[in-house]
Amino acid sequence: QPWLVGILVPDGSPLPPLPPGFHAVSQADPEALDLHMQDLLDAPVGVLGLKVSALPTTHGTNWFLGVMELVRWTARLLPLEGQTTLEVFIEQRGDYTPETNVQPGADELMRQLAETDPKRARKLRIHQRIVRKDASPHLGYADLVSFAWAQSKPFTASMMRQSGLLGACLQHGNASELRRAWEAIDGGRLPDAATWQRFLVSPDASVPGSLVRMLLERVAEACRSDADYWKSLCEGVLAHLDGREVNLVALGRAVDALLQCQPVGTALTPRMLLAFHTARLWRANHLGAIDLADAQTLEQLGERLFEEVPTLVCQADLVRAVTHTNLFDFDGAAAAIARWQDQRPEVAGLQHHGRLLSTLGQHAAFRGDADGARALFEQALACFARISEPDLVVKDKEQTGTYRAIAAIDSLTLTRDAVQAALADVAGPLTPEALAAWPGDDARPYLHHTVVRWLVAHGTPEERAAYRQAGGTWVTEAFHPWELTEAYRGLLCWDAGDLEMATAFVDSGIMLALDPGQGPTVQFIGLCLARLGTGLGLEVEQPDDATVQALRDRLPRAPWAAWEEATSFPTLPEATAWLARVLPFNFR
Fold first, then answer.
1. 329: part of which helix (H) or strand (E)?
2. pLDDT recorded at residue 242
3. Can you list the residues of the chain whose pLDDT is less than 50?
4. What's residue 58's pLDDT?
5. What was the pLDDT predicted at 307?
6. Which residues does 584 contact at the CB level (< 8 Å), separation at least 6?
7. Which end of the chain is more exposed for a tag (fewer CB within 10 A), N or C?
8. Contacts for 328 with CB less than 8 Å, ≥ 6 apart
């Protein structure tokens, strides 16, 4: 397995012994695994896990390198209150048998520790050996955690989430790089900007108690007392801004972190502020929230920095446009990108010019011009095709291709075959066999939503049945656009006469959309789905008057008149026609 786990058991520990020869994969009863996991969590022991994939590739045995990395981390983190001996039992594997001498690895580790932390090295001794599975009554616990961590089955996934081990004890990031940075800090050397930014986007960075989080806290502490170091990290962020591709997730975390550990008497540059507000507004848009304060600040910074960093200003304006779109303010969205309409592609660069064309296509679609939108999406895709490094625009091409497919679905001029071709170009074949696989696909949520929407609008009875009859594998997530996917699933079931399933799916979509954690735009979608369910004759969740009024106040430009006119929908076309009046383009 590519998951390596160590269990640290102090002498005299009350951890119960496991049955002789315990092997997690052989346990047929999930409850037995759960009880053993609880025994482990209740005992005063340590747990540390690394992914082999997070270790550097070498010509050696990756498994044994991983084992030694676990031992190294244990040697670094183990609390020492005097002379301590660490006895390491390594379960035999492949050519590594009880006859294999692995003590030289421990001796080399101790030599390295003596160089980096001589005080710690004087207190510690490490003895390690390869053993059979039954050599220790506790060795099976490492197997249990490794097995549960590696599995994606609902039971083991739930067990791991509830254990609290993920991120804190079981590390996903680059363990070797993290250890070197940790040792460097102990030796008075701080991570450079590039290393620090990589740690910020590590999967474990937001997990309290994780190694990455602790290291980032030590970096923040150093910044508060060392303005020169803080400025060096700022320079690294500026270098990111000057790079070929700005990663708004990484950028947002970096600038946010710099603000939190900013030394007294220092200030962010205008470019850094532009990056910060762009990333923060992008994050709000992604969550469906609305932040006009950031949008206004970006407009002012964009005016100031247009000639200095046009690509970043273009990105900021595109993000501002999304904010206005979320408010149903399509005129405001157009105004946010107005300064780019007559600019040549090289001003912002081909990638951002393509994004601009894609955004203009979205605005046309939101105003009901599906064919005009398709033409703009085609131009955007042609722009992306001119970029010399195709890998840079894979996501852009998929996103714009999905928009083009949605516009094709809504077109009143295209034949069914033309619509299907537009969708297949981005989603792949739409054969019955392929459609039967989509219910279990959670990797491409926007494409998934588009496929189900196409089935409702243009699917044949056979195509709809191929998707619907694979219902045992349906997956759902708690973020947009899954609430729409659930509602379209409900429409497919309603059209097939399965009112029980239709009610369950539409109700699920309503609850997902009306969750308090959703932004106002997604919550408005929830109001529309509630009206849709009632119009279909289904007993579904209804929002209270306070929720409706709060959304009226936050979204005054939303199509409330069309929302109020909902009555009953005797046919599928009547239901989808009403949805088109209340939820334009990809809001439905």
1. none
2. 63
3. 56-60
4. 46
5. 94
6. 365, 366, 367, 368
7. N
8. 555, 557, 558, 559
